[in-house]
What does this fold into?
Amino acid sequence: MEEKPSRVERPRVESLDEILGQPLDVLDDGFVRVVDYMGADDSIVQAARVSYGKGTKQVHEDRGLIRYLLRHRHTTPFEMCDIKLHVRVPMDCWRQWIRHRTASVNEYSTRYSIAIDAAQETAPGDWRMQAAGNRQGSGGSLEAATGARLTEREAELHALARDVYQERLEHGVAREQARKDLPLATYTEAYWKVNLHNLLHFLRLRMDDHAQLEIRSYARTIGHEIVSRWVPLTWQAFLDYHIGATSLTRLERGVLQAITAGHPDEALRLAESFGLLARGADGLKRNRERAEMEAKLAEFGVEVPWKE
Amino acid sequence: MEEKPSRVERPRVESLDEILGQPLDVLDDGFVRVVDYMGADDSIVQAARVSYGKGTKQVHEDRGLIRYLLRHRHTTPFEMCDIKLHVRVPMDCWRQWIRHRTASVNEYSTRYSIAIDAAQETAPGDWRMQAAGNRQGSGGSLEAATGARLTEREAELHALARDVYQERLEHGVAREQARKDLPLATYTEAYWKVNLHNLLHFLRLRMDDHAQLEIRSYARTIGHEIVSRWVPLTWQAFLDYHIGATSLTRLERGVLQAITAGHPDEALRLAESFGLLARGADGLKRNRERAEMEAKLAEFGVEVPWKE
Amino acid sequence: MEEKPSRVERPRVESLDEILGQPLDVLDDGFVRVVDYMGADDSIVQAARVSYGKGTKQVHEDRGLIRYLLRHRHTTPFEMCDIKLHVRVPMDCWRQWIRHRTASVNEYSTRYSIAIDAAQETAPGDWRMQAAGNRQGSGGSLEAATGARLTEREAELHALARDVYQERLEHGVAREQARKDLPLATYTEAYWKVNLHNLLHFLRLRMDDHAQLEIRSYARTIGHEIVSRWVPLTWQAFLDYHIGATSLTRLERGVLQAITAGHPDEALRLAESFGLLARGADGLKRNRERAEMEAKLAEFGVEVPWKE
Amino acid sequence: MEEKPSRVERPRVESLDEILGQPLDVLDDGFVRVVDYMGADDSIVQAARVSYGKGTKQVHEDRGLIRYLLRHRHTTPFEMCDIKLHVRVPMDCWRQWIRHRTASVNEYSTRYSIAIDAAQETAPGDWRMQAAGNRQGSGGSLEAATGARLTEREAELHALARDVYQERLEHGVAREQARKDLPLATYTEAYWKVNLHNLLHFLRLRMDDHAQLEIRSYARTIGHEIVSRWVPLTWQAFLDYHIGATSLTRLERGVLQAITAGHPDEALRLAESFGLLARGADGLKRNRERAEMEAKLAEFGVEVPWKE
It folds into this structure.
């Protein structure tokens, strides 16, 4: 790195510039739009090469280097890209969003200004049922008539909440106090700036099927509509190595090895030793870790050597 | 530091141990309680002395060293103490709290469990008026009759919100969706762990008169009831050097110097050059920076050499 | 969570208390010792249960819950435990250590005090050869005679560096400048406080075979001697789900599925479409991703359907 | 904020673009150059206005708003600007730099590549003496003859260190180990990305007279040559409210008030009650806090009512 490099231009990404500033709709009244960004796939490569020194330029091409970095969790070069989004999102959803701490935020202030006059509304067909197997998820929709009734009641509640808010303001109550009973679904807006490494972490958690539908909708829009345009090489690597990857625990590896090597008895012994095969009156006791293992092995057409 | 030090005991703070686990009431139905802590005033001294090497033990005594560190913003030793609180707080207030990013948090999940059946209620005399001079503050109370009416309406809204929530749950709506219209004032609970440096930063902002009454109530309880017991030397230094301190800008210093040196003309010239003395039809234009300067100089009995 | 909980005791860990303050030797003249800690396996469970509400206590037992949390990357409860270490470590190694940003640090100051009179020394048999396949690793030892020669030269350099340092100090050169040519291997000391989540991340990277021997020695001591005593349930889960786990990329899953389902042609097509089977004059071109895939499949006794 | 805003352009700063990529020399062989940036003074205003809602645009003009934000520590809008620098800096200095944790870093790797063949050299006139009053500072220069001798010895040490390093590499020692005795003054390079808020914090500490000359040289170049071009309004506000400001402690305010109000006896009582006036055999004992107070009061021409 002896030669001092000369003047550079800021990297630009044509395909992202095309949508700069344009709101991408999410939910009934939300949006995400890109306000600014810094860096591109190139910048990741450039930062990584500072670490490697100049001698290595010939060896790796950009795509290969980016994929290598992401596959092997060399995360720092991905911090060299930043994006700034303007989002409009229900406060309820924002409460989850804001738990990602490594980002910069300026949120619309309902102390300073009157609250945005909009709350997320639910169409009759969009009421989701509590998931059976998962205490924190949802699955399936309520039947139409019930949905219609709940949507009516939602409108009633929104109307009362808005009336009460207005009434307080008209009587001169401070905005900071008047807002106290707004519904959690009230929309807020914010500027949210995050680096690419932390954004990918956010997407990994929030694009997932276990994430709540609302934040998942934002995450998928950000991923598929924005990140894919901004850093296409990184995005593909992310799909290949994070979203589409799976992890095998020490035990799952051991059991899979034993079975593929033709030693089902060894697989049994291992599962036993990890406490996965405890039995009750009616066969094997429910065991979450075992269920997860069985699902993974099934993906590879491998049958487990124990019976329910 | 050549000698390897021998076995140590974990530092304990008797006066904090006395209230460990005990909820301290805040607002109508909130609390703060200490769950655990690490370190004490001693630990700050000990960490600072790692930096200084052993030779300096005789020179400073603990109190002096802590005060020196805090006065001169040597902040790292204060990171060596941690405290873990269990808090119960309205979500509205929690939204402000959580913006302090350098803390660890586990919050009660209304995806996983049914929401806590309590929202902050406002007594008729506790409705605060919008502040006149400050767009984001409050000041004074509404008169009793209006307050009574607003409190009634608040109860009506809380009741409807709770009914709608129950109705959704009874129809099998997923908890994550059923909660969407809970009032912002609904109580939540969380474990919040923070180091002393970041806690003092939190307290500096949130104990301040400009902070909203609700979070200010929590901050003052934490400061006066908890931190004062935990690290009394640090607490006193914090009151002396942060809470009770004031800052003079470059311009304020210049004007104060000029006036105390008997050069009011120079003070005028300075203020003019900073654009603080722009005039309109009816005298000096409103200028926030000038107003702040005048308030500070008045504290020291100094009259400014310009006229409204 | 309606009942307000009563007084609690700080959690203690007997097996960790036994070694509190005792230096555990690392390298020729370094050490790690535990100065203080907060929390235990119990505290992780307790924090997680704040999220879940009280109703769930019967369902999970502690061990199962901790394993579930770690397996599914529910990381926040692990932030609820903290540990404070006093370490003595060569500056060269410390330069890597300090790159982990989410920790609190007080380091011995060579501006303030005279540098510690010790630098890491290399025994004749401990000179490591540059790794062949890995540009940033080492492998194998130099032969004895060369090692002896290099050790002699190291001593010569250390002696000169120390002389020059002393000379500068004797002539009244400021400590901050006098230190400028100390060898990177000079020992420093620091207090390092980190939460369990971030510590596990540190250990995952630094206990790894790819980490440099020096920092790996510290990491393994911290892991095997300290964390294993402090939070034994978490430690075991960490070995099972992080250290002993492996990850299969989207492509690796696809290829493995195709092969186990008896469709080697499909596996070939997939690998081809990912660009892993490019050919040069003498067969398949070197491809790092393909090599990694082959190694993983071999672990499960699966032969790849392509030939070198 | 009801209207969804339309397409935007990325903010550009002409005066910064002019020096993009150009190395600004620091020390004998170091540099700083801007590689990329995001945002401008405008972006701070824009982010702040998200908080305030659109109604306020007319009230504040940009300059006034930026100054208000900085004066009142509304720090989040300043996080909305980022800058990426390429720096070349002695490792010794980098050790201080890297302690600022809220930045992203890619450093030249001497595990991966051969170390940069340059170490900071000291001209005969540049040897600094240990400060008398400040254990961690320097002041004044050594006399020429001594300086010349020390510079010679420095060259001797650098030569031996380089020889030993080369020798190790030639014998096949791994780069990660070969580097262990390089002088701390060896140059390294890095990409360093930081947001404006954290950069100002860095500059406040490192432009200060108490910072070591080396890092101060970098900080001043970054401040005066780069930040001043990038965000000129913020830079001026920073000079006025941070660099040029002073702080008065609770006690200093009290004493100054008492004196200016004509109550020197009250000032005495206060100082006494704070323990600043302890006496020994030969008058007042040395007391750092008192000395600091006296210096501040002297700035305003105020004489203290106690005698040495």
User: Anything to note?
Assistant: The interface with chain A takes residues 64, 67-68, 71, 73, 135, 205, 239-241, 243-253, 256-257, 260-261, 288-289, 292, 299-302 of chain C (CB under 8 Å). Residues 294 and 304 of chain C are 7 Å apart (CA to CA).
